[in-house]
Amino acid sequence: MTPQQFLAHLKKQTPAPAYLFLGPEPYRRSICRRALIEKVLGAAGEEQGLTVYDLQNDSLNTVIDDAWALSLFAARRLIWVSNAEAALPRGKSAGGDDSGTPQGAQAVLEAYMKKPTPGVVVVLDVARFDLEGEDKARMERVRKFFSAVRMEVLFPRFTIEEARRLAADISERAGLEMDPEAVEWLVDAVAADAMRIASEIEKLSLFAAGRKKIGLAELADLVPDSSVSTIFTLVDALARRDRMRSLELVDVLTRQGEYMPLALNFLASLMRLALAARQKGFRSPQQIQQAFSRPGRPVWRAKAEQIHRVASALSEQQLEDALKCIFEADAGLRDVRPSDRLVVEKLVFALTT
After folding, report:
1. How far apart (Å, rounded) are the C-alpha atoms in residues 155 and 131?
2. 15, 106, 113 from 146: Cα distances, Å
3. CA 250 to CA 330: how far, in whole Å?
4. pLDDT digits over 139-152, tens only?
5. What is the DSSP letter of 334?
6. CA end-to-end span of the chain, whole Å?
7. How far is C-alpha 2 from the geometric centre of its chain's CA atoms?
């Protein structure tokens, strides 16, 4: 089931004896964990009723023994088992058959699930593997090993679209007004990590204090590792030939410890797309978005708009000259020089002359 289905299940039914949490995404997992704790133990019952195990250090047999035992201090209990994938058999242990081996632990789990202890809920948490891609086969082994646990909750990573909607929802709940461009660049800057999105929006809301709208300029200054959004803002400043703002953004990139050759690669990529858009005669962001998007690598609306702005602001010759200047700066970064910053500042002067 999905996290949303799990939350709906908790509202309508009593918790199952055991759940298997699968997938690496922590934001929705934390919401489901809090909801389950409140459902099983009540608002103030976490201290006595919650037991936490880590199968990197404990055995699954120890967990099941604890689940079978009756507590003198809590009528209802929640046992949370992290790194549950560590219970899987490895090497020769896969052929073991006594109760101390991983395969024996699987039999013990199956026996427990046939007659679980009333009032006890066990959560086996597997956050190490992705649900798709290279980890899919490993995840299938996990599912097979824990097949006695019928209730699975899946936590896939957020897609770009999901992360964008989440950022918009969180900012709205926080009373924070953000430009659509700022939302998209925030999602890109934190690689669609929902936990970081929530954290950064909380900090941005404190900065705004209900008085200020957050745009790309504020995002570039306030969000750590938002070098991508800073570079996009730098492109806009260069297109306007705004030398002072461009130098300020170079200073931000320097303070962030940005690897300047990578920053120039982003800059060159945007300039090349703008040049291609101008050569093909694209007249709208929609045309750019449709032409440059590829399966699995979409061009976002905000990026298409920026490409369009740059292509409109600079002539074909100016774009070609800019790419030549970027190439020379990239070569300068790979040569002996006093500092990367001087090379990039020289580039800014060349592009804003």
Report:
1. 8
2. 18, 7, 11
3. 15
4. 999 999 999 999 99
5. T
6. 59
7. 18
| Total residues found in the chain within this entry | 353
Looking at this protein, which amino acid is placed at residue 205? Answer: S
**Which residues is 178 bridged to in the sheet?**
214
Per the DSSP assignment, residues forming a β-bridge with 125 are: 21
Question: SS in 3 state form for 159-213?
Answer: CHHHHHHHHHHHHHHCCCCECHHHHHHHHHHCCCCHHHHHHHHHHHHHHHCCCCC
**Torsions phi, psi for 233 (to 5 deg):** -65, -35
User: Can you list the domains of the chain with their CATH numbers?
Assistant: 3-154 (3.40.50.300), 161-351 (1.20.272.10)
Alpha-carbon gap, residue 23 to 127, rounded angstroms: 5
Q: What is the pLDDT of residue 95?
A: 41
Q: Which residue has the higher pLDDT, 106 or 22?
A: 22
The predicted structure's pLDDT at residue 337: 61
- pLDDT by residue (tens digit) across 2-36? 999 999 999 999 999 999 999 989 999 999 999 99
Strands 50-54 and 18-22: unpaired
